[in-house]
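Good day; I would like, with your permission, to put a structural problem before you. What I wish to show you is a protein chain and, alongside it, a tokenised description of its three-dimensional fold. Please examine both parts with care and let me know of anything in them that strikes you as inconsistent. Thank you for your consideration; the sequence and its tokens are set out here:

***
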Amino acid sequence: MDGQELEDARRQMSELAAQEGFALADVFVEREWLHSTALDGLVAYARRHQVRHVVVPSTPHLHTVPSLAFIAQVVMQEAVGGLVWVAQVTQEETASVRALLDARPL
């Protein structure tokens, strides 16, 4: 993630947080592939400051494989005892939600 991408992600997360009545306190960025330093730092920060809502730029920021991103989201929610909000939902995720809503009985 380059500087402009980071600023764009920060802006999107800040906008979502403000829209939901939260304040964006900090941003954690994983700098090395397959490391979890930022994730560990985020969870530790959330626990230390009793943060119950975490915002991520998009689900691929949790994991590039959609099913593993979902698992990462659930694990993070359990770790902080709250919710993980997604600032930018992908078209694939939107289509999946629409398909589920269309398939539900009335």
Remarks:
- The first helix runs from residue 3 to 19.
- The chain has a mean pLDDT of 83.
- Residues 50 and 72 are 20 Å apart (CA to CA).
- The first strand starts at residue 53 and ends at 56.
